[in-house]
Amino acid sequence: MTVTTTQKDLEGLTLTFVTEFDAPVERVWQLWADPRKLERWWGPPSWPATFTQYDFVEGGAASYFMTGPDGSKPAGWWTISFIDAPHRLEFDDGFADEDGYPVEAMGAVHGVVTFETVGSGTRMTVTSHFQSREQFDQMAQMGMEEGMREALGQMDAILADVAV
């Protein structure tokens, strides 16, 4: 199983997933850096993502939507704030309206992803930093923890593909 631990810190307003892969850091990094690979796992299997914009540089923006089982297409955005390839990535992630503009009422979640070599594999830690307890609770009610666990669970299969 990809996800080894999940930790909720209600006081620190964080949700952290620790994952380990039997692949080198650079290959795991590519699952974030390459939008075609990213959309193979970003989102649970029943909500696949499509990235329509992906400028993977500091200050770069990304736009995406997910397609739900009912055909709905909720949209999201990223602003990439820090890249230290292949060790650290930081970005803000939020919901977008149907024209692609951020939904301010939902705020943004700051994501920090770190990669470290462990033996011949990689430990990846993904921490989501919430702006408030209300936002944390709202995302929890929307199933963020389960959705992220399912999304990360797809990475092993992609890494097993020799073409990755």
UniProtKB/TrEMBL annotation:
Cite the InterPro entries for this sequence.
Answer: ASHA1/2-like_C, START-like_dom_sf
Q: Which domain of life is it from?
A: Bacteria
What phylogenetic lineage does the species belong to? Bacteria, Bacillati, Actinomycetota, Actinomycetes, Propionibacteriales
Taking every annotated instance into account, which residue ranges of this chain make up the domain Activator of Hsp90 ATPase homologue 1/2-like C-terminal? 22-159
Gene3D superfamilies (UniProt xref)? 3.30.530.20
Similarity comment: family membership: Belongs to the AHA1 family.
Source organism per entry reads: Raineyella fluvialis
**Pfam families in UniProt:** AHSA1
Q: This chain belongs to which protein, by name?
A: SRPBCC domain-containing protein
